[in-house]
Description:
Largest sheet: 2 strands, antiparallel
Strand content: 5-15%
Structural class: mainly alpha
Helix content: 40-55%
Distance between the termini: 24 Å
Number of domains: 2
Mean pLDDT: 92
Amino acid sequence: MSMRRIKFKELNPAVSLFLSDALRPGEGIVVEDDAGRAFCGIVPYVEATAEEREAAWKRLERLQEKVSQSMQEQGVTEADVDRILSEDD
């Protein structure tokens, strides 16, 4: 499924007013049909701060180091992992 991008200012004024009023920090919206089934959802995107991004990169680097060390200890190569992941179940 692809996602269509549209700028907030390009929305119909009634839609942008509704979203401004309806969206709360940390919450999204699920739109239901008349039978109560989920029809679509709106999840606001909150961009991480520079500090959060830096901390995430550091956690990823530590994880990569641990995985690399563990693979070396077990004698497993990246090719082994690629082969295992590409096998059909």
